[in-house]
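Chain X:
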Amino acid sequence: MAIDNLSSFKKLIDDENNQVMKSRAQEAAANVIAQAARQGIRMSVDEAYSLPSARLQVMLNENEPVGDWFAEAEAHGLESFQRAAEERAVMEAVADAKNDRHAQAVEALETELSKLSPGERMARARELGQRLPGPGETKRQPLSPAEKAAALQELERLLAAMKMARVRELGL
């Protein structure tokens, strides 16, 4: 009979008598998840527990993962890492008009976004970490001090609901 380290670990931390170890495991998972999030990867608790370095951190009562959890995650082919790599490849193709996959990537992204509500679309754009330029959008020149003063006076006359849209439009 083969020993499954992950299931043994879960049994160990789920035991009623191991509350201290369970809290250490949750802390270790939160640490790895936070580190992954800083790199744009959304990792689940189960994925964090599947990493030997995170389990060792709990067992040895260390403050940081023991070993290179990032290399382990890539080597294990965790779903969150695969998804992040695919999204990165799509966004690189979208950003580079000379890329062979550019048109295909833009079409795939537009199709995905068209199926979402406006709120979900904004959240997805934040996840991807990039705002795609709209048609005809060019790089905005900074406002001169006189233009900025005039724009601020104009904002005072606008309704509250319209102010934020105008601020974004002006790049203030």
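Chain Y:
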Amino acid sequence: MKVGVLQFFGWRDRSVPVEDVYKRSLERIRIMDQTGYDAVWLAEHHFSGYSVCPSVHLMAMHIASMTENLRIGTAVTLAAFYHPLRIAEEVALLDVLSGGRINWGAGRGFDPRELSIFDVPVEESTARFREAVEIVHASWSDERLTYKGQFHSFENVDILPKPVQKPHPPTWVAASSIGAVEWAASKGYSILMDPHSANSRIAEKLAHYNNHLATAGHSEVKRDIPTARLVALAETDSKAEAVARRGAEWTSKYIPKQALAHFRGDGKVVEPVDHYMDDVILHGSPERVIDEIQRLKETIPLEYLLLSSLSDRTFEIFTEKVLPHVLD
């Protein structure tokens, strides 16, 4: 199993300077660089304290300068919000300056407020995102870009620099809905599995992805499918449950109800906190969480755990007592 970290920059207490949020997170990333984690994946969000990282590209460049071993992923670049050529240039520059350590993850986004403020009509957001991904890949692969699409058209544009990794940085797309899963499989893109879906829903989407991948003539061999799981660890199960519940309450404040329907997929109406506590958050003592990860390896199957820790102590315990038991 590979293990990466889905890094949020949550600002829960506005009385704490925002600089401390970054300082704490960056210290965690320094530890990751020396302890066997595969990659840090940076979460982009806007206009709330859920994650004060509005530019994953800027943050990735800073992280590249302070690390040596860690791969650096975007989870995700909200591609519908930007001009695609700007994305292509910035991520290629990141790849060059990091020595080829960039994983590019792209997504549409699910927050209606973000879409509205960035003036992206909800009904156009999926098409804009998909076209942006196609343009970015063409920008990296073609010597000069010529493209005619629904929203963008270019003729003989010299996109520079080109990435160090060939043919381009490995690419993932966020796939929280069945429609997104099917589109990614049809194009042969690898997928990122979200931290909000129930474990059973993750297994269902992964099986659906593999079936459609084969139907479209693409191989599933040697694909990393990072699967994000919220995790709460403590010395005892009861203490970890309290951490998990606080995390569920915090997270559920920022997830729109229509997005939660995608993450569940079963049509049931449940309280958001119950959704996270029942079948999303892995919580307990180190021994209990190790057992749960082993179970998910067999049932999902989980081959790349994308850890989203719900406390600083969770990260410390995971690194010391869980990580050595789950790494291949």
